[in-house]
Structures are given as C-alpha cells and as structure tokens.
Amino acid sequence: MKIFETKQALQDFIDEHRSKNDLIGFVPTMGALHEGHLSLIEKSKEQSAVTVCSIFINPTQFNDPKDFEKYPKTINEDLQKLELAGCEAVFLPSVSEMYPDGMHQLPHYPLGRLEELWEGAHRPGHFQGVCVIVHRLLEAVRPDLLFMGSKDFQQVAVIRQLLAQYSFEPTIELISCETVREASGLAMSSRNVRLSPEQKIQALAIYHGFDTIQKAIKEQITCSTKELERQFAQQLLDAGFESVDYIAFADPKSLEPIIDLSQTFVVLVAAFIGGVRLIDNQLFPHELFKRV
User: How far apart are CA 1 and CA 97, in angstroms?
Assistant: First the structure.
C-alpha cells in the first residue's frame, strides 16, 4: 500500500495506472475507520483495478469547532485496516495541501434547497464545506468510480448534484452503498466510539423507530407523517436521547417533505445522545407496503 501526502505524488501514481487503462476507485473518508468504510473499500476493489482512500478531517465542514476538536483521530489503526483490506493507495494530505490559499473566500456551490433542508438547516455551511473538499479531492484523485455510504443520505444527494454541475475528466460514477450496521442494528459511525455501552443500547431506539414505522404502514394504521414524526421523537427522548434535531419523511430524490405514505420515501433522523450527534436513515420502498 502506497501513502501519498501531496497531490502531485498521488497524481504521478494515478497517471502511471491510467497509462495501463486501469479503472480507479475512490473512497473519501475522515478517518476513524470502521466496517462501514471497509465495506466501501471492498466494493471498490470488486469494481476497480486500483482503490484510493483519502483520510482528511476537513475543517470547513464543521460548523461547531468543538465537534471538530472531538472528532476521533486514529491514523495508525486506520492505515493498518486499509492495508489488511488490500487498499492500493492512501491520500493523507495536510490542511495546507488542500487549502493552500487558506480557508477564506472559498467558492460557493449552488445547492438550492438541498442545503436548506434537514442537515442543511441544522448545520449552516456544512454542505458548502463538503463540496469544497470533495471537489478538490476528486480533482486530485481523478477517479472513475466514487464510493460513498448511504448513511449520509443527504450528503450523497449533495455530491450527486456536484457531479452533475461540474465537468470531471474522466466522468465520475457515484456508487451509493448500503448502510452497514452493527449486529444490534446500530448504524456504524466514527462517532460511536464516543458512546458508552449503555448509550449504544439506548441509541438503538432509532433503529427500532424505523421498525415501528414499517409496522404502522403494513398494518395500515392511520397516521399522518407529522404524528409518526412526533411519536418517533418521543421514542428517542424516552430512550435517553437528550434532543432531536429532526425526524423527516422525505422524497428520496429531492429530500422535500412528503405527506403521502403510499409512495417510496426515506425517513431521516438526527438526534443527540451523550453529547454525540447521530444520524441515520431508512428507505421505505413503495413495494414494501403492497398487501399480499
């Protein structure tokens, strides 16, 4: 496994493989790697000749400086995991490498409603920071395939819009992979390391909330989305969550709120437990609720 700290060294490596017509797969991360990240590496290896993983904790996407400071940093363990997973290359840039002109006067990305809804509303500027760094990473890596986890559902939608708005050479295909969960059902997250064993059990209320929604719709229990959102939020608070940022029933493409439960929709959740902000989502396909 090769490790690169500069864009130029990485691009020399990429050019060498491009000359052989090798397909390049890319997995961008902020480190603190878990099985969810490693499943993306595995997917990339299945579909690409060369897999590149970046590890960069991007300061411009944290609207809370304390959250940036607390973000887990486990670089040695991360590199060991990537080597065992068979990753061919790791990009480990410094802040100055990715932001040579500083972090002021950064470009603005036209994201429209996507940065006003849900995560966008609760984390102002977050998706602008995500777009800046992902755009720069894509220009550095120049992959054919980009692998992202669907746990960050809204972020995937934002990056899909970024790819549609800007020209990349080669053209990049975004592959969104299913959320990887612990055996208990808890969505894997780098932030989970900050939870106590008891809080991990309490956090399962999110997963159980999805089951409650599925049951209510299958049994045709008459409830509005607002009522289901209210019940879900109360379940989380009763389980030990301190607060709920949002529970949203949304259209999977536009992420606009929906009220018609007979269509395919996604339920998006963000809530705090033990001072840790967890996000999760569940897609509810229309076919799931057809009566036998």
Answer: 21
Catalytic residue among 17, 34, 37, 126: 37
Indicate the residue type of 191: R
* pTM score, whole prediction: 0.93
Assign 180 to helix, strand or coil.
coil
Q: What is the DSSP string of 268-291?
A: EEEEEETTEEEEEEEEE-GGGG--
Asked whether 130 and 94 are in contact (CB, 8 A), the reply is no
Measure the CA dihedral 41/46/48/54, to 10°. Answer: 0
Beta strands in the chain (DSSP E): 2-4, 24-29, 50-55, 89-91, 145-149, 173-177, 243-250, 265-273, 276-284
| Tens digit of each residue's pLDDT (9 = 90 or more) over 67-123 | 888 888 999 999 999 999 999 999 999 999 999 999 998 999 999 999 999 999 999
Nearest CA to 281 among 250, 239, 243, 244? 250
Angle at 131 between CA 128 and CA 134, to 5 degrees: 150
Is 37 a residue of the active site? yes
Is residue 26 within 8 Å of residue 1, measured between CB atoms? no
**Contact criterion met (CB below 8 Å) for 240 and 273:** yes
- How confident is the model over 129-157, as pLDDT tens digits? 999 999 999 999 999 999 999 999 999 99
The total of other beta-carbon atoms located within 10 Å of residue 256's CB is 11
The SS3 assignment for 257 reads strand
